[in-house]
Amino acid sequence: MDTQGLNPAQLAAWVRLAAVLELLPAALDSQLRRDAGLTHFDYYVLAMLSEAPEHTLRMTALAEQVTATLARLSHVVQRLEGRGLLERFPCPEDRRATNARLTEAGWQKVLESAPGHVTTVRATVIDALTAEQVTQLGEITDAILHRLDPDGAKKSLYQRYDPPN
Amino acid sequence: MDTQGLNPAQLAAWVRLAAVLELLPAALDSQLRRDAGLTHFDYYVLAMLSEAPEHTLRMTALAEQVTATLARLSHVVQRLEGRGLLERFPCPEDRRATNARLTEAGWQKVLESAPGHVTTVRATVIDALTAEQVTQLGEITDAILHRLDPDGAKKSLYQRYDPPN
DNA sequence: ACCGGAAGATTGTAGAAACAACTAGAATGC
DNA sequence: GCATTCTAGTTGTTTCTACAATCTTCCGGT
């Protein structure tokens, strides 16, 4: 590894965080793949739409919420549209823009796959921690996000889920 | 999102952790790509070799350390070999096995790219936290890893960097 | 009114990852 | 001592992601 100027506590924390960074997304992904036939990213796209009014969002807005480039989103949405989980239609107000809307099938998909996903999150993260640690984790990740995303492009999203007190 | 049975504190922590899970790997990756022309995974492979005796490891052992399938590793190693950063040679003890060894150029590559990487880790994670939070993060990630990796395949690696006290 | 540039999105292509099939060598069992 | 099985790796194919190029529409200035 790269011990360079990190003290033992810092190094221990970093090595473990790095391991979590590898294993946790893989775990979430494979659960969703297995149980719902969706990538975690696919799921995320559908989930964001499911929370939007009318189950509809403009491509640009959706891209921001899922932290993807428009190009990537466009490809993914194309596949999901092919599978009948969502549909695209031109935005009336701005003829450059495209709206993505969940279909009924897509909405059902979210409803049926969300519980399993939440269960995995619980099992791997939440239930592994004490209530106090959950609070600490919230504060720690918040601090890190201020570094990663100083301008808060993403901030609007996660600050919607306000920390208690 | 999927509020299902998560209380506000849990939800806040999870949403932020999920954001970190997206943004942090991307940040590390793009720094290494830009400054060293390496994927984070490439770097990781080279870094693990650089810590091994003789800068050499068997493919299987290496795969375990970087948490990859042998197939994936094989492809990556092939590219890195093509770039002259490492070399493969048959293992004398077991003729099924292959050893991967860092070349001099590969070793130099690690030496020159490690500082930048550590700087990024500092800037985005360590320096964002108080000393106490670093300790907490270590404990939290450790708890999560016990869930993600109960059998400790990966454990041997990160427990090498023992937590202080 | 019109020109330049920015915003919104799609498409094509090249590089990287996942998955499955396959080969060679070693270990085990009878 | 041979057949079965397991271990170690590689290769090929399909799928996804990243990046660059392109197109249309909107806006701002003059």
Automatic annotation (TrEMBL), chains A, B:
GO MF annotations, alphabetized: DNA-binding transcription factor activity
Annotated Pfam families: MarR
Domain HTH marR-type positions: 14-146
A GO biological-process term: response to stress
InterPro entries: HTH_MarR-typ, MarR/SlyA-like, WH-like_DNA-bd_sf, WH_DNA-bd_sf
SMART domains: HTH_MARR (SM00347)
SUPFAM superfamilies the record matches: Winged helix' DNA-binding domain
UniProt cross-references to PANTHER family, sorted A to Z: MARR FAMILY REGULATORY PROTEIN, TRANSCRIPTIONAL REGULATOR, MARR FAMILY
The name this protein goes by in its record: MarR family transcriptional regulator
